[in-house]
Amino acid sequence: MVWSILKNIPDPEIPVISIVELGVVRSIVITDEVVHIKITPTYSGCPAIDRFVDDIKASFKRHEIPVEIEFVYSPAWTTAWLTDEAKVKLEKYGIAPPVENSEDKGLLFQGGPKQVRCPQCKSTNTKLVSQFGSTACKALYSCNDCLEPFDYFKCI
Ligand SMILES: [Zn+2]
């Protein structure tokens, strides 16, 4: 019940994936009085975390379940926590999923991974346009084959 409520809460920034698929829900403890949920925020620079909390509270309120939310900062969230299903959905949504599991950590600030696949035509003949796409968590790429620009979800 609790998991199914959480699975229906979309990521505030990428509505096609749920916060469960995003990998931010660390644990759930259910007591007689309250559901205690531990959440690890994604990128610290992302403003989405307040939305997570508001959305979770609102969803549980609709089911009349009291909920308590606690942030856990260690271990830090990484893109490796994205489920495979989430990566498929990201690509269908037009965002290239992270290429390697946190291998290119330093690339958040410099350069970019070499083999980012275009979500439209699946070509890897793509180029980095800007380190920052629609949000700080994403980089802007463009495809040399279909010429479409797209967001790349950076690895951390
Ligand atoms: Zn393309």
Can you say what the CATH homologous superfamily of the largest domain is? Fe-S cluster assembly (FSCA)
> What's the CATH topology label of the largest domain?
GMP Synthetase, Chain A, domain 3
Count of helical stretches: 4
> Low-confidence parts, pLDDT < 50 over ≥5 residues?
101-106
The first-to-last residue Cα distance is: 31 Å
Helix content: 10-25%
Mean pLDDT: 86
Report strand %. 15-25%
Secondary-structure element order, as H and E? HHEEHEHEEEE
Broad shape = elongated
- Any idea what the radius of gyration is? 17 Å
| CATH architecture call of the largest domain | 2-Layer Sandwich
Describe the fold and architecture:
The protein is of the alpha/beta class and 156 residues long. Helix content is 22%, strand content 22%. It contains 4 helices and 7 strands; from the N terminus they run ααββαβαββββ. The protein has helices spanning 2-7, 19-22, 48-62, 84-93; strands spanning 25-30, 35-39, 67-71, 95-96, 126-130, 138-143, 149-153. The strands form 2 sheets. It has a 4-stranded mixed beta sheet with strand order 4-7-6-5. The radius of gyration is 17 Å and the shape is elongated. The structure holds zinc ion (ZN). Zinc ion binds at residues 118, 120-121, 123, 143, 145-146, 148.
What are the SSEs and their pairings?
Layout: H1 2-7, H2 19-22, E1 25-30, E2 35-39, H3 48-62, E3 67-71, H4 84-93, E4 95-96, E5 126-130, E6 138-143, E7 149-153
Parallel strand pairs: 2-3, 4-7
Antiparallel strand pairs: 1-2, 5-6, 6-7
Bound molecules: zinc ion.
